[in-house]
């Protein structure tokens, strides 16, 4: 969304007055502050996590006993589709983005992201996309073709209702949000690092964010095209994926997984980054082989585009393709294994402190190893043919996504909670949460390996008795409710700690990276003075002198003041009151425009005139917001200083 | 950066970037990298569907190479106009900028007009979106490219009117450069499409 | 920043831009001429020549007009990664989708031979005259389109239409059937239209779904059904 025209220094006539609220609802709606947007992302995603969790619990209730009667087959289809879509696109991704928002600018020593209003736009588009894709529940036609929506099931006549339309258009909106967000973070990390923070001095979490955003930038256009083709099939009667018209349903599968496999790494890499921050802090050791962790992350990203067809071994690609993709899949396990050894190496010989976030990080490693190993098993086509479409697959990806991504994210929440709120999370409740999660998730997902190898297909809404699956399915359901209990403990802990937690101080964990050098919660402008970075784990070295590793057992050499360091002095002018970008109405208006554009399309097959009216309204909102945005300076003219006339001020 | 020639004082905190490259330039190039994947997927779809149409009209019966060559030339030459517009504003020549912007937008519109004419002709010969896979993949690929050209023309005209009101000076040449990058990208995508869709048959 | 400014000074002059434009013009001309040279095509040389020429044009616009040759190499990396992956994905997808049904040659010849089904359908049509004046009912061709696009082929087969399921009756000899809707309605255009409009209202529980067609579409589909030999 590059701006066309530099804003004027004199007052500009815009359709809306500049928002000025600093507290209350309007301040959140118009905010462009990366910390607030991070909190919005996190809380929205958590609410959706509960929604997706409820969907999972209903499914587990249905499957607890043979011939379950809780829901019918159609509802079950909607439940598993929306559970998968929700957890992937509306929970794990935005939770990671919440951390990108909150933590990355703090870790690279920036005052905000490169394009603050674009950042707000990403959030609002995400929110509207999340609402849109869930609208189907209201009329009982939620998406029901599975989260990868294979072509036959999504084409008329097999999908005549609005179910798939909600899915296609909702994902299109969410894709826009992801692309905009990742462009923004990419530029932020490339361009807004503090002086001296060379690429190899960036914390691993920042590195993994960078890699994740590159993956998003390259993978999301593919799903955008795939969804567009599907949309044309459904609305304009083309035959891209319809065999009776000469089309190729397998092309959908290809396009989906060209996006889908990088997507898997988009989900896991941020959690890997978080764990790579937590382990060194609570081991009081630098990350073992920092460069190896970084390069293996890059290797994973590179390889992730070359493994997609391992999702298609059962589709008859032929021996050459099977062999090639089997090989590349085995290869991608290598950099992943490198990371695991690095994490274990970090803990080896360290002064371990088993705080809650450390427990989650260790739990992440253990669970991710199990999920990773069952994943490598699928790389062998003959084995995959047996496991394909069974509960074994369900077990595998839940170990990776729940035991991996979500455990890492929970670790991250406990780790950065004091930074964001200024209060410590309760350790006792936290540990209860951790152990309940560990117990619950292994109870739920481990038996699925057995039922899967025993031939229980995934996505069935019920099964007859005496298949030998009864007992373990009941265990799965008990485990699922244990996880639900653990989430309740987590919510209680967060609520309680927010009000009654101990005051945290700047650096409660004795951290290593820049975010711990500033107050908790950070001021609006983050850094009173932009720090100068001289090494990896710069804050640690500033605290403990040049040989931070040697000083692991000692007290800090001196306690530096926030933001000030002894070797500072790069730019003479101290910025006590840095100009921060002003809030803006345009992002939410533009996002609403996209929402109505998609909503209008829903009516195209039945009430075309409705389409024209609603789409025209959405388009009007979009264009108004676009031009309003372009002519609105980042800082309103009354407060903007001369800097308003500068290249960057034109913004985004 | 574009501002440096006119900025009266040293680099302020807001302008400092780690790479020395302007945010918006980095954003634009990254976006174009991402757009490559978008058009690659569309082209891949066209190639996969090639020769799978169950019924006519087939490409041989419809595609008019001389006509499309002319619109290809007009898009290619619009790229020349675009760099001349950028060179003009970098010299501080606002009048030159306006002339070349208008020329770029005109040639772009000419290309779009050609596309509308071509599409209409195809429809009259019985090729619609839903007729066969050639129609579907052809219209979707070239249609999305045409949409990009349309956005580009609107962008150029917005710049033109801004320049007319005196809102674009030498120090704002970055705004023109960004529009130029987008415009040239649309042009190079057409270079690929012209070869793959129109000329390659075997 | 300083580096960038000095880089800008090295951008080509305006006459340089014009020389580049002339080169682009020439390359495109060569492309178009090569297209008409039969021997090149016969020798399988056309595709490589065209791809090479367009790659040169691509690089020329990128290098000179987009200043990739002169600006920071970082831009080259950002754009290049996307471009390289894009090319890889196109080639991989073409290879993977061609391996199954046709042994892997990336650029396929266009199949202008009529399919077996089309030939058979044409033979069946010989000597068949529709029972009604189809033009007064609706547009047969549009109806044929709806028959495929609205998914009738999911359950029904029809002469001249490839594929088709076996859940519902085969629509061959449609006009010769005495009744429709499982015997509930006589076989007249009006009854067929009524049936297509809302099958469930006429025969609750029938496997025939409500296709939410509008009046015109229903008439076209009816005309198509009566056109079937």
Short synopsis of the structure:
The complex is a heterotrimer of chains A (652), B (202) and C (229). Chain B has helices at 23-49, 59-62, 65-91, 94-124, 133-164, 173-199.
Describe this structure in words.
- The complex is a heterotrimer of chains A (652), B (202) and C (229).
- Chain A contains 18 helices and no strands.
- Chain A is an all-alpha fold and 652 residues long.
- Chain A has one domain: Cytochrome C Oxidase, Chain A (Up-down Bundle), CATH 1.20.210.10.
- Chain B has 202 residues and is mainly alpha-helical.
- Chain B has helices at 23-49, 59-62, 65-91, 94-124, 133-164, 173-199.
- Chain B is elongated and about 55 Å long.
- Chain C has two domains: 2-101, no CATH class; 116-226, Cupredoxins -  blue copper proteins (Immunoglobulin-like, Sandwich), CATH 2.60.40.420.
Summary keywords:
heterotrimer, B: 202 residues, mainly alpha, Four Helix Bundle (Hemerythrin (Met), subunit A), 6 helices, 73% helix, elongated, disordered N terminus, C: 229 residues, Immunoglobulin-like, 2 domains, two-stranded antiparallel sheet, 2 strands, 2% strand
Give the helix/strand layout.
The complex is a heterotrimer of chains A (652), B (202) and C (229).
Chain A (H helix, E strand, L loop, with lengths): L23 H6 L4 H30 L9 H36 L7 H19 L16 H4 L8 H29 L12 H33 L12 H35 L6 H15 L14 H29 L8 H23 L2 H7 L3 H31 L5 H27 L16 H31 L37 H7 L41 H17 L5 H24 L21
Helix pairs in contact in A: 2-3, 2-4, 2-15, 3-6, 3-8, 3-13, 4-6, 4-17, 6-7, 6-17, 7-8, 7-9, 8-9, 8-11, 8-13, 9-10, 10-11, 11-13, 11-14, 13-14, 14-15, 17-18
Chain B lengths: L22 H27 L9 H4 L2 H27 L2 H31 L8 H32 L8 H27 L3
Chain C lengths: L1 H8 L4 H23 L1 H5 L3 H20 L7 H29 L14 H10 L8 H4 L2 H10 L29 E2 L4 E2 L2 H9 L1 H4 L12 H12 L3
Antiparallel strand pairs in C: 1-2
The CATH homology group name of the largest domain in chain C: Cupredoxins -  blue copper proteins
CATH class of the largest domain in chain C: Mainly Beta
What pattern of helices and strands is seen along the backbone of chain C? HHHHHHHHEEHHH
Uncertain residue segments of chain C:
1-9, 100-112
Percent of residues in helices of chain A: 55-70%
Return the CATH class of chain A.
Mainly Alpha
Content of β-strand of chain A: under 5%
């Amino acid at each position: 969304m590059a701006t066309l025209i530099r804003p004027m220094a004199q007052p500009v006539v815009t359709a809306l007055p500049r928002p000025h609220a600093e507290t209350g609802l309007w301040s959140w709606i118009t905010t462009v502050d990366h910390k607030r947007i991070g909190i919005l992302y996190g809380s929205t995603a958590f609410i959706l996590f509960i929604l997706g969790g409820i969907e999972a619990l209903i499914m587990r209730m249905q499957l607890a006993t043979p011939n379950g009667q809780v829901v019918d087959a159609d509802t079950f289809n909607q439940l598993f589709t929306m559970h998968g879509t929700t957890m992937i696109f509306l929970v794990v991704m935005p939770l990671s983005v919440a951390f990108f928002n909150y933590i990355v600018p703090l870790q690279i020593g920036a005052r905000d992201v490169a394009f603050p209003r674009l950042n707000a736009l990403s959030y609002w588009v995400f929110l509207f996309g999340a609402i849109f894709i869930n609208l189907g529940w209201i009329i009982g036609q939620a998406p029901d073709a599975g989260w990868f929506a294979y072509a036959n099931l999504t084409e008329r006549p097999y999908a005549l209702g609005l179910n798939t339309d909600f899915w296609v258009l909702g994902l299109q909106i969410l894709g826009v949000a992801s692309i905009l967000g990742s462009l923004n973070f990419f530029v932020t990390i490339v361009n807004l690092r503090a002086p001296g923070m060379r690429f190899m001095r960036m914390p691993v979490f920042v590195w993994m964010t960078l890699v994740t955003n590159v993956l998003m930038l390259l993978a999301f256009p593919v799903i955008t095209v795939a969804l567009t083709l599907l949309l044309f099939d459904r609305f304009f009667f083309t035959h891209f994926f319809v065999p009776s018209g000469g089309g190729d349903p397998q092309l959908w599968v290809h396009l989906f997984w060209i996006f889908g496999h990088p997507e898997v790494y988009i989900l896991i890499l941020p959690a890997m980054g978080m764990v790579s921050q937590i382990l060194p802090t609570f081991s009081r050791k630098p990350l073992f082989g920092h460069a190896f962790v970084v390069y293996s992350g890059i290797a994973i990203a590179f390889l992730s585009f070359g493994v997609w067809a391992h999702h298609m071994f059962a589709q008859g690609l032929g021996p050459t393709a099977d062999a090639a993709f089997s090989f590349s899949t085995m290869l991608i396990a290598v950099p992943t294994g490198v990371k695991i050894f690095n994490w274990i190496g970090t803990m080896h010989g360290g002064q371990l402190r088993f705080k809650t976030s450390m427990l989650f990080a260790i739990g992440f490693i253990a669970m991710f190893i199990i999920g990773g190993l069952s994943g490598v098993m699928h790389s062998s086509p003959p084995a995959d043919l047996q496991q394909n479409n069974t509960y074994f697959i369900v077990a595998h990806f839940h170990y990776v996504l729940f035991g991996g991504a979500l455990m890492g994210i929970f670790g991250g929440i406990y780790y950065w909670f004091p930074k964001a709120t200024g209060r410590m999370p309760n350790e006792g409740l936290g540990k209860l949460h951790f152990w309940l999660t560990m117990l619950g998730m292994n109870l739920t997902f481990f038996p699925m390996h057995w039922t899967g190898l025993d031939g229980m297909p995934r996505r069935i809404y019920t099964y007859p008795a005496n298949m030998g699956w009864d007992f373990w399915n009941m265990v799965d359901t008990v485990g699922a409710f244990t996880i639900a209990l653990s989430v309740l403990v987590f919510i209680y802990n967060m609520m309680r700690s927010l009000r009654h937690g101990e005051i945290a101080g700047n650096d409660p964990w004795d951290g290593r990276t820049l975010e711990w050098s500033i107050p908790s919660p950070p001021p609006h402008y983050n850094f009173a003075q932009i720090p100068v970075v001289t090494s990896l784990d710069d804050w640690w070295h500033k605290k403990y002198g040049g040989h931070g590793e040697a000083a692991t057992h000692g007290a800090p050499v001196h306690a530096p003041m926030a933001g000030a360091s002894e070797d500072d002095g790069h730019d003479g002018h101290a910025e006590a009151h840095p100009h921060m970008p002003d809030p803006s109405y345009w992002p939410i208006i533009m996002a609403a425009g996209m929402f109505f554009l998609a909503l209008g399309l829903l009516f195209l097959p039945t009430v075309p005139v409705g389409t024209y009216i609603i789409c025209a309204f959405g388009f009007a909102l979009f264009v108004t917001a676009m031009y309003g945005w372009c002519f609105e300076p980042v800082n309103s003219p009354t407060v903007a200083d001369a800097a308003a006339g500068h290249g960057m001020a034109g913004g985004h | 950066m574009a501002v440096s020639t006119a900025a009266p004082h040293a680099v302020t905190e807001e302008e400092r970037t780690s790479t020395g490259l302007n945010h918006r330039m980095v954003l634009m190039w990254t976006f174009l990298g991402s757009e490559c994947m978008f058009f690659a997927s569309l082209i891949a779809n066209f190639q996969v569907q090639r020769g799978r149409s169950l019924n006519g009209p087939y490409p041989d019966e419809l595609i008019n190479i001389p006509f499309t060559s002319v619109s290809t030339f007009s898009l290619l030459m619009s790229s020349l106009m675009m760099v001349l517009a950028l060179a003009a504003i970098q010299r501080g020549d606002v009048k030159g900028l306006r002339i070349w912007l208008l020329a770029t937008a005109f040639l772009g519109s000419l290309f779009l007009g050609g596309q509308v004419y071509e599409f209409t002709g195809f429809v009259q010969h019985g090729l619609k979106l839903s007729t066969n896979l050639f129609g579907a993949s052809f219209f979707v690929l070239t249609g999305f490219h045409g949409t990009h050209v349309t956005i580009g023309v609107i962008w150029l005209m917005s710049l033109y009117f801004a320049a007319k009101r005196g809102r674009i000076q030498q120090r704002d040449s970055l705004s023109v450069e960004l529009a130029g990058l987008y415009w040239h990208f649309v042009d190079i995508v057409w270079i690929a499409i012209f070869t793959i869709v129109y000329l390659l048959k075997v | 920043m300083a580096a960038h400014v000095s880089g800008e000074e090295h951008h080509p002059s305006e006459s340089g831009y014009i020389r580049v434009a002339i080169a682009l013009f020439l390359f495109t001309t060569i492309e178009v001429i090569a297209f008409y040279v039969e021997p090149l095509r016969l020798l399988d040389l056309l595709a490589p020549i065209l791809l090479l020429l367009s790659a040169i044009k691509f690089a020329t616009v990128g290098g000179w007009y987009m200043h990739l040759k002169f600006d920071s190499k970082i831009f080259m990396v950002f754009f290049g990664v996307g471009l390289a992956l894009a090319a890889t994905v196109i080639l991989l997808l073409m290879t993977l989708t061609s391996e199954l049904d046709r042994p892997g040659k990336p650029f396929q010849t266009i199949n202008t031979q009529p399919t077996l089904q089309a030939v058979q359908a044409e033979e069946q049509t010989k000597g068949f005259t529709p029972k009604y004046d189809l033009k007064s009912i609706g547009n047969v061709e549009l109806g044929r389109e709806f028959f495929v696009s609205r998914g009738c082929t999911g359950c029904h087969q029809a002469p001249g239409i490839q594929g088709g399921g076996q859940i519902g009756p085969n629509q061959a000899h449609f006009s010769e059937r005495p009744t429709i809707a499982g015997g509930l309605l006589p076989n007249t255009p009006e009854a067929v239209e009524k049936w297509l409009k809302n099958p469930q209202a006429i025969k609750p529980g029938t496997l025939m779904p409500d296709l939410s067609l509008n009046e015109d579409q229903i008439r076209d589909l009816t005309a198509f059904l009566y056109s079937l030999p």
